Amino acid sequence: MYDIAKIRADFPILSREIDGKPLVYLDNGASAQKPRVVIDAMSDLYLNDYANVHRGLHTLSNISTEKYESTRAIVARFLGVKNEDEIVFTTGATEGINLVSYGWGAPNLQAGDEIVLSVMEHHANIVPWHFLRERQGVVLKWVEPEADGSLPAQKVLDAVTDRTKLIAISHMSNVLGTKVDVATIAKGAREKGIATLVDGSQAAVHGPVDVDAIGADFYVITGHKLYGPSGSGAIHIRSERMAQMRPFMGGGDMIDTVTRDSVTYNTPPMKFEAGTPGIVQQIGMGVALEYMMGVGMENIAAHERDLRDYAQTKLAGLNWLSLQGTAPDKGAIFSFTLGGPAHPHDISTILDKRGVAVRAGQHCAGPLMDWLGVSATARASFGMYNTRDEVDALISALDLCHDLLG
Fold first, then answer.
1. Is the pLDDT of residue 99 over 90?
2. Is 46 helix (H, G, I), strand (E, B) or coil?
3. CA-CA distances (angstroms) from residue 26 to 75, 297, 315, 384, 393?
4. Strands, DSSP E only, in 132-214?
5. Residue ranges of the Aminotransferase class V domain (predicted)?
6. Phi, psi values for residue 66, rounded to 5°
7. Could you report the per-residue pLDDT of 214-268, keeping only the tens digit for each?
């Protein structure tokens, strides 16, 4: 049984109030709250065992190193990856995608080569490819979703030409909640010798992910959306692609030998992890992933589907509200506008006075806003600790918005 009361009790911040109202935190798409077990694990490390990793032989360094490196196996298990040496630690999805752009794209792509993207991508999965467009003449090809926000895999594959070298696609849209059949895209790309990068920042939070089964060459996640700390994350890189990559950054740990005249590099994944890492952050992410797996990713997915369906029904009853994205089996992410003079920033401010925290703006998705024909939206995004009562609180706050702004 999914014990929502127990889960909520695990997150200390959910007990606080905003302007005398209980906090209803619906900004999980931007960053999720942290369970006490993560907070305590990070605090305990700083209080009792902290030292730099890999470089020392003393007790504290050994303890920190063991905890840090054990996280790599946790990430691999969470993602369904058999080979933990294919897991590279990053500060988040943004660094992971930039690692691919600099480490794989720059040395392997040339002028006229194509990268296929969807207009639903987060800026983190757009700007690093613009770097290659600006600096190397790489061509960006854009795929638009259907009217309901869905993105058929075949539509992405139909954009491929004999110059396509990479498909970079989100597993789930952070604005529309659209789920993308990335396994079919990866399979079709692989048959043509094309690399695939999947941004799993949203999808990995809301249900089980089997990266080995998906078959993409690169799969990125970010810890702060996974109920872990900011500054943590990872990327899965298939071994064949690792062999094609040059280091992204230079420094300690990523080297084998350094002399005045030459440098040789460490073996992957260390080859791509330069300098002192975010030791405590990565350990905290590992604890967060263990916490989620302890609850059960299928259980989390089922709970959020119930919230999604309940919220869809309630929001559909507000005939003055425009929902963006109604794709079947979407995630529990709802972007909307109220029309008229009601700007999303005004909506967010009024909801905040009712204790309801939502996002307002472009959500780092400028091309998608252009396609939708809006300058911004408000967004309510649900997580494992949200409830139907909080959906009702959102609806009540939106009614107030309509009264004030409609």
1. yes
2. helix
3. 26, 20, 15, 11, 11
4. 139-143, 164-170, 195-199
5. 24-394
6. -60, -45
7. 999 999 999 999 999 999 999 999 999 999 999 999 999 999 999 999 999 999 9
Q: Domain boundaries in the chain?
A: 4-30+296-405, 40-294
Residue 313: both structure tokens together = 């029904």
Judged on CB neighbours under 10 Å (0-12, 13-18, 19+), 47 is: exposed
- For residue 339, what pLDDT is reported? 77
Rounded Cα gap, residues 11 and 306, in angstroms: 21
CATH 3.20.20.70 fits domain 4-30+296-405? no
Question: Which residue of the set 9, 63, 364, 405 is catalytic?
Answer: 364
Integer angstrom CA distances of residue 108 from 9, 104, 191, 247, 341: 49, 6, 19, 13, 49
Which tokens belong to 5?
A: 């009361």
Amino acid at 161: T
> How many H-runs (helices) and E-runs (strands) does the chain carry?
16, 17
| pLDDT tens track for 126-168 | 999 999 999 999 999 999 999 999 999 999 999 999 999 999 9
Identify residue 265 by its one-letter amino acid code: Y
Whether the predicted pLDDT of 405 surpasses 90 = no
Q: DSSP letter at 246? A: P
Structure tokens at 395: 């609806």
Query: HSE of 299 in the Cβ direction (CA atoms, 13 Å)?
Result: 12
CATH architecture, domain defined by 40-294? 3-Layer(aba) Sandwich (3.40)
Select from 155, 108, 158, 118 the least CA-distant residue to 140: 118
Query: For 373, left (φ over 0), alpha (ψ -120 to 50), or beta?
Result: left
DSSP string across 336-404: EE--TT--HHHHHHHHHHTTEE-EEE-TT-HHHHHHHT-S-EEEEE--TT--HHHHHHHHHHHHHHHHH
d(CA 103, CA 279): 23
């065992």: which residue's tokens?
49
Q: Which amino acid is at 51?
A: A
Give long-range contacts, CB 8 A cutoff, 24+ apart: 220-223.
220/90, 220/93, 220/96, 220/97, 221/75, 221/79, 221/93, 221/96, 222/92, 222/93, 222/94, 222/96, 223/92, 223/281, 223/282, 223/284, 223/285, 223/288
What gap in Å lies between CA 55 and CA 279, rounded to an integer?
Answer: 13
- Asked about 364 being catalytic, the answer comes back as yes
